[in-house]
Amino acid sequence: MADTFEKYKDGLDSPALHAVAVTPHDSTDLTNDARSLYVGVTGDVTLLTSGGEVILFTAVPAGAILPIRTRRVNATATTATSIVALY
After folding, report:
1. Contact status, residue 34 vs residue 52, Cβ threshold 8 Å
2. How many angstroms separate the CA atoms of 3 and 24, rounded?
3. Rounded to whole angstroms, how far apart are CA atoms 36 and 18?
4. Residue-by-residue pLDDT tens, the chain, 87 positions
């Protein structure tokens, strides 16, 4: 199937081209920094930003997309599940 948009340059506001399930871990970074995270099941998400800050997002609703560049999703204090990194 053809990609209608293949000739357009991707920007940070463009839809993601790749997605991968995330297993939260306190010391293992994602293979690539994600441009955003999809949260499938409600809960808290603790992450390390691409800029180096650790931040806790509380009560993230199911189906939310966190538009923050992320290096790692920490296991400690993360209660949300079915998290997907979008690239």
Report:
1. no
2. 32
3. 11
4. 787 777 777 777 788 989 999 999 999 999 999 999 999 999 999 999 999 999 999 999 999 999 999 999 999 999 999 999 999
The distance of Cα 60 from the centroid of its chain, to the nearest Å, equals 13
pTM of the model: 0.90
> Cβ(62)–Cβ(84) under 8 Å?
no
**How many C-alpha atoms does 80 have within 13 Å on its Cβ side?**
29
- DSSP letters spanning 27-62: SPPPSS-BSEEEEEE-EEEEEEETTS-EEEEEEEPT
